[in-house]
Design goal:
CATH topology of the largest domain: D-Maltodextrin-Binding Protein, domain 2
Oligomer: single chain
Distance between the termini: 33 Å
Number of domains: 2
Shape: globular
Helix content: 40-55%
CATH architecture of the largest domain: 3-Layer(aba) Sandwich
Order of helices and strands: EHHEHEEEHEHEHEHHHEH
CATH class of the largest domain: Alpha Beta
Strand order of the largest sheet: 3-8-4-9
């Protein structure tokens, strides 16, 4: 099985889990080597170059997915829009669409670069997850863990194991990942506290609403 990997901090707990959970050294090596952006992972998944991945919510329709996602119930800090001339973030699919659904025009910025910018300029930009929450009262699901039919049972078992025993992030790992992005471990810890991963009924409702609204504008 080839597992796609998004190299953003928002999946750090899941990455720690997968390092232990992937059974075969070949699988683990392939996963470690395939780090990329959400939009690239989406294309690789749809083309069948990878067997399972956390893919953008906007691309999950018609695929077999789990109850694992990347979710924020309000402020997320790593998905921003700067009002002005429209400019999509090429790393994104879902966030670009979210800006349109919210009726906002400007430059979209996602991921670790957006987090670092928000930490350095706390009063600049619109947090799109916070904007969605204010307009709908719901959390926002940025991505879901999906797999092709051959591997979906195994991936669902993996997600259940993750929820049954979420990994603790060693301080050494927290420090290493934070320093690599030029932020502090405390800032990284605070950021991760804004993100959760279990898709329940509210999150499914939010996903349904997002996809319904997207179908009207695409």
């Amino acid at each position: 099985m080839i597992f796609g990997k998004i190299t953003y901090l928002n999946l750090l707990p899941f990455h720690i889990f997968l390092k232990r959970a992937l059974r075969h050294s070949v699988e683990k090596k392939a996963w470690l080597m395939r780090g990329s952006t959400p939009s690239k992972i989406n294309r690789d998944f749809e083309a069948g170059r990878i067997d399972a991945a956390v893919i953008s919510s906007i691309k999950s329709e018609g695929h077999l997915c789990t109850d694992f996602g990347i979710i924020a119930n309000g402020e997320v800090m790593s998905v921003l829009l700067f009002p002005g001339k429209k400019r999509d973030d090429t790393d994104s699919d879902t966030s670009n669409a979210l800006a349109r659904i919210l009726g906002l025009e400007g430059e979209v910025m996602i991921g670790d670069k957006a987090l670092k910018y928000r930490l350095e300029h706390p009063n600049e930009g619109i947090d799109l997850a916070q904007e969605w929450k204010e307009k709908t009262g719901l959390p926002f699901v940025f991505a879901t863990l999906c797999a092709h039919p051959k591997y979906i049972k195994r991936i669902r078992r993996l997600s259940k194991r993750f929820f049954a025993s979420p990994p603790k992030i060693p301080y050494s790992t927290l420090k290493k990942e934070a320093e690599a992005r030029d932020i502090t471990p405390q800032q990284l810890q605070s950021y991760l506290s804004k993100i959760y991963y279990r898709i329940g009924w509210r999150e499914r409702r939010a996903l349904k609403l997002f996809k319904k609204n997207y179908s009207k504008i695409k």
